[in-house]
Every structure is written in structure tokens, then in C-alpha cells.
Amino acid sequence: MEEESSGGKWTKEEMTTSNLDLSPVPQFDHTPFYCEENVYFLCKKLCTSGIAEAQGSDLFVVFISNDKGQIPLWHQKASHRADGVILWDYHAICIQKKRDGNSPHLVWDLDSSLQLPSPLNVYVAETIRPSFQLFPEFQRFFRIVHAPVFLHSFASDRRHMKDSNGNWTAQPPPYDPIIAEDGTVHNLNEYIEIHGADIVSRVEVDLLDAVYAQKLGVVVRENQLEEFFSLLT
Fold first, then answer.
1. Could you tell me which residues are beta bridge partners of residue 72?
2. Catalytic annotation, residues
3. What is the pLDDT of residues 120-130, one digit of tens each?
4. CA distance from start to end of the chain
5. Which letter, b or e, does each residue of 58-89 get, where b requires 16 or more Cβ atoms within 10 Å of its Cβ?
6. CA 214 to CA 233: how far, in whole Å?
7. What is the Cα–Cα distance from 16 to 75, expressed in whole angstroms?
8. pTM attached to this predicted model
9. Is the predicted pLDDT of residue 22 greater than 60, yes or no?
């Protein structure tokens, strides 16, 4: 995950975060610019700490990108702007299914300056800002992957974080690279290459079966994200 440069100008808006009464959350390992590995170990920690189901059945990993690999997100810690906007090539977060009818779906984004976790509707409004008018090349697409599938299948040898001379573009985490259970050493590109042609035409109940079964889940538009999670019971 790397910051993209943009010659465009962004409108500065005043945003506030929701003050929810949430229980204290554990500390999570976080390496800047390695969001895919951060979310991998975040899911594991949520499972082992009892915040999520033991097998992660209530967790979903969501990769955000588009055809151009240029996605604006607000309230990001890496931003140098007052409104926290940054242009990523891709990003990865975790969304936790609500536990009962009175609680919201929760977003876990270790790169966000919003409250951790944040209700999905708050995160969408303040980080994605679907009402903000963007040029078509900046539209965000979302690959939703069921966490148990992701934890079995994901692998990264960090090759994408080296320049043409083999030097690191950002210091890697201190632990060994993640290897998939089948021995695959790198498939990050399969998750982050997200194209308009991959987007589902409609969000229907049958889509849930695909998310639970397919290694790469399903891809939705930003205006379909909350609709998808509304199908989960």
C-alpha cells in the first residue's frame, strides 16, 4: 500500500466522529503501508481475544481499489492534510458483522484516525464520503472476502514494496512474510487488482454464498457496500 500523488484539489470539510460507548480494545500490531498484513493479524487478534467469533465467521476483509489504483480516503493517519484525505493505490480494512439487532456493523481500520472500531455507516460517511463528487477514475470498488477464507488463502512475500533496484520503499514488518496454508508465497495482486468489470450488477441474498465460498469474494460499488452488509443477519 503506497500513497499516490495527485494534482487535483480537494475541498476541505469539517467532519466529526461519533462518540460511541465502546469497550476498550486490545493493542494491534501495525506497520505503516502494509495494510494487507495489518488486517491479517488484526483478524487473528480479534478472534483470539474473543472480540470476534473464534473462527472469524463474523469478520470480512475488504480491499478497496479501482482500475487506476487511485482511491481517495479521508481521516487517514498518513495524510498531511487537515481533513486527513490521502490517495492510496489500495487499502484493506476489516468489517465485523453486528452481533445483534441493536448493534451496528463495525469497521476496523488501523490507518484511520476515527474511533476504533467505527460503525459502518459512520465510516462510510466520513472516510468514503459517497456524497463527495469525484471524477470517475477515483471511484472506489470494494472486494469483500470472508475472513476465514482470507486467513487460509492469503500470502505476501512483499515484492510489491521493493523498487526496481530491490530496495524497500517502506520498512517491512519484523516478522516473516505470510504464507498461505497451501504453500503459496504471494497472491496479494489477486486481491488488490479490482476492476469495474468485476462489480456485481445487483446485491442479492445469493451473493452471500459467493462471499462465503470464493477465495476472492465479491466486488461491489461504494453505494452497494452498506446494502451488502444489510443482508447479513
1. 87
2. 35, 91, 109
3. 999 999 999 99
4. 32
5. bbbbbbbbbeebbbbbbbbeebeeebbbbbbb
6. 20
7. 10
8. 0.89
9. no
